[in-house]
């Protein structure tokens, strides 16, 4: 008799789920003034009431959750700060959190849900390029706004996306130049097998050719790959002076451990990573990556008064062990930039906000960031840093001023072929 | 038609070094109930296995009607040649009804696409019905086969062998676990089957063998020890020595344990 | 370091650890009463049960041992690479493949399978790339199974299914 | 007796018709967003039917159906991508340094060819793998592992061949199908209706297939493959056929998925989604045709529902649900119904026997 009983409880549970689904459905329908065909009615509903809904869409489960959760936390922190200071347009921000589950179609689905059902004024989210590309058609079609906080490969400029991470010319290009000047000219390119490393390396190769660098090897490993013995054997036989590392996630842990096991030190061969920040160093273990380099726009040690406050607030909110890093900071100031643009526009209407955002500046922890009206990326300062034994990164070089974002590398002669083939 | 239906010529089955059957010569004549007896490990079941293709002969030939060699054919091809086998433990399909068990067993085109188009014909229905009548399972025809009693399962499997309308029927201990009444019935069934085909049976129960055998083969260590009627078998000194001698030993073991 | 071959201490330790594991599992399966029972259950569950072997207990112990060894393997992995909640998924396929190639229920097969796959993997990876290497390994395993459908080491049985 | 069978059939038919009409009229009472979700679930349901044909009826557990789903989806997506670029190269190809359309993409300029290949391509792959493995009697756990390895290998290949497949990002950003804008509500409703019709057709087709003698042969192969050999069947051929068929169905589901979701990427076809697909079938109840449909829709609805209500901890709920079902409903949800039916039947039989006894 017991089993059927529990079974019925289960069934009941299921029915509850369905009921919950349809309930939220009804609620959403009730919020919608009319059928959504009429474009002009769409945006007004977000201004209704005392709150403005904003969507937060990161992977809270799956392989990307480790990285994305902290960005989500930073964005929530920014929202909290804004609310404490009286909100935006006198209204409190109400974050609607969704889980992208490290699955790109899910990102598309949830972005659709946030825009169509919750009618959020803007979405802050994404990490991987794949997730951004999945959300792109959805935000364009619904004429929404997406703030994307991570450095990426460039070659994209959607009218509905603001890119607060670095474009390639704000991270990769200066890093290659700096390496050529300071570390040597034989390069080994190592990356995970996906769009960012492949595209980034295509640009690096063009740059090396133009600047007289030498490419001695290029390797891609599948995402999540953890055995780097053969790659290290190749590195050993090629003896490069610099390894340009675009590995992503866990692979870095394996690579640096095995590299250090193999006895290759930063003095022999320097590794410069563009996807390893303070958070990742915690996972890799500072002792095996100490002395290697990174290129970012922001480090926890960056010396600005804004950063001091940011790090303090972040640690106060999420514990003393929490570290800040570039994408975390980019997610954080993205929210503030949007809030500033909304204040300036006086409405959350997407077109008005986009117009108001042109040229707008904000004093972010990494320094003053300014939105470039042409491509909706931001001006950012570039910083090369060296990993310290305590897991922090110490800046060894920084650009004199914030660099203008150039996602298509149009300002570089050697990249002409690349950008031209795209313009077609 | 005195020609043998099935002829085994110097057949050896080698299980990585152990020769379960060793250069065996053996014949099955039509319309006979042919019993194979012998002590455990004599190779009786292996004999059936290598005829129906479950075990492969390492060397030698198995000829059907004196010509077709079966040793290289796949199991289903051997079945198509008219050889059907009943296994020791009932291996009917428990999740199918009695009727459905017979339905998939009966003689028909069993290739994929033929099967997809298959529909009941009148003759098929009639013959299945007759078969159900014969094994006394008319009442249970829509029950799941898994719910049948042990004896009924055995009969169902015999029936599944028969509806294939084979020329040669191989039965492995068909009366194991049956009551006296069920045994008698099975015996009658076997006699009836043998009217128009050859039946080869592996059996331990000597009374049963005595009652129904036309011819008996005694196997020992993978070879034929003796062949003849049951009376001849019982009186043969070689058989007594090997078979009964062993049996005495076994009895001694049993009492010892 | 010997020539171009380098053996970091961590790898040597793992090598030693796996040999210890192998020897102890061999000892357990082939030299102890419990191991004998386990093998009996594997070969004929019903018969073993009839002979008074508690199959439930054997199942439990075997599962425990299997999990334990997986745990040891996990420990060894910390010396090599990243540890995260999804680490298992990276190795599960390789582990299964080793069993398929080696033959289910065969200790020697598993070892030989692991070596075979490991060596071919490294060679393919070195000659081509990591992605293509994986594809080649898979094709090789499919081809191998055409030749030996039940893996390197086959345990024969007379049961029908 | 006969009349009750007819009644039963009629009863089923009525229930299914009502369900069908309910699904067909869903555009009238669901918002566009929800309709789109339901359409996606139904595409999954199509796949689940095919998977159950293979697992529930033929007893072959494939942990690699994501790949067939993916192949169908990619075929459709390749056409859509080409149409969106109006003959130009897709953007990811230009990044990867391609200057002209690779050979393998050429057939996908034509929508009909793309749709046909979306079914044939997965079917062909399944046929090759199936005949290579089943013919050699590689079955059970061996086959399951191989099917999973196939996923691993193909996903690696898909990710690695970025210049051909778009890598991890997959294919997205489509605009038109046959020149009709895809993202408009009316087009999406049409896709939904097509999905419902395809689901109904596959549902009825598979029911017909398994309810006859053919289905009994499949069950026979599931419960005693070797026994079937000695009844004169060649189980390898049957298994290969069902594997191929179920791959073709998965391909079809993949195409419908892409039309409605607008993106396909390797994350959708990898190991974890492939296992999830099996879970739908297990939850709904294998060995029935309606079970997998219920399972696929319910699990995905639960997934969406939980993750919308509790974005931080929804995975725990889903996991708990799986565990509960596996522990308490080992035969899935339809198993519950069957137990109930069996109990009723046994009660009836009980009465029947009593009556018979009283006559004696």
UniProtKB/TrEMBL annotation, chain A:
Keywords: Signal
Signal peptide: 1-19
InterPro entries (alphabetical): ABC_urea-bd_UrtA, Peripla_BP_I
PROSITE patterns: PROKAR_LIPOPROTEIN
Biased composition (Acidic residues): 32-45
Region Disordered: start-end pairs: 26-50
Cross-referenced PANTHER family: ALIPHATIC AMIDASE EXPRESSION-REGULATING PROTEIN (PTHR47628:SF1), PTHR47628
Protein name: Urea ABC transporter urea-binding protein
UniProtKB/TrEMBL annotation, chain B:
InterPro entries in UniProt: AAA+_ATPase, ABC_AA/LPS_Transport, ABC_transporter-like_ATP-bd, ABC_transptr_urea_ATP-bd_UrtD, BCA_ABC_TP_C, P-loop_NTPase
Entries under Gene3D superfamilies matching the protein: P-loop containing nucleotide triphosphate hydrolases
PANTHER family given in the database record: CONSERVED COMPONENT OF ABC TRANSPORTER FOR NATURAL AMINO ACIDS-RELATED (PTHR45772), HIGH-AFFINITY BRANCHED-CHAIN AMINO ACID TRANSPORT ATP-BINDING PROTEIN (PTHR45772:SF8)
Pfam families for this protein: ABC_tran, BCA_ABC_TP_C
Taxonomy of the source species: Bacteria, Bacillati, Bacillota, Bacilli, Bacillales
Residues covered by the ABC transporter domain: 6-246
GO MF annotation list: ATP binding; ATP hydrolysis activity
Full protein name: Urea ABC transporter ATP-binding protein UrtD
One Gene Ontology CC term in the entry: plasma membrane
Keywords, ordered alphabetically: ATP-binding, Nucleotide-binding, Transport
Automatic annotation (TrEMBL), chain D:
Keyword Membrane tagged: yes
Keyword Nucleotidyltransferase: no
A molecular function (GO) term: branched-chain amino acid transmembrane transporter activity
Range of residues in the leader sequence: none
Location relative to the cell: Cell membrane
Keywords carried by this UniProt record: Cell membrane, Membrane, Transmembrane, Transmembrane helix
Bilayer disposition of the protein: Multi-pass membrane protein
GO cellular component, one term: plasma membrane
InterPro entries: ABC_transp_permease, ABC_transptr_urea_perm_UrtC, LivM-like
Superkingdom field: Bacteria
Regions that span the bilayer: 12-30, 37-57, 63-82, 103-129, 141-161, 190-210, 241-265, 277-301, 313-337
Protein name: Urea ABC transporter permease UrtC
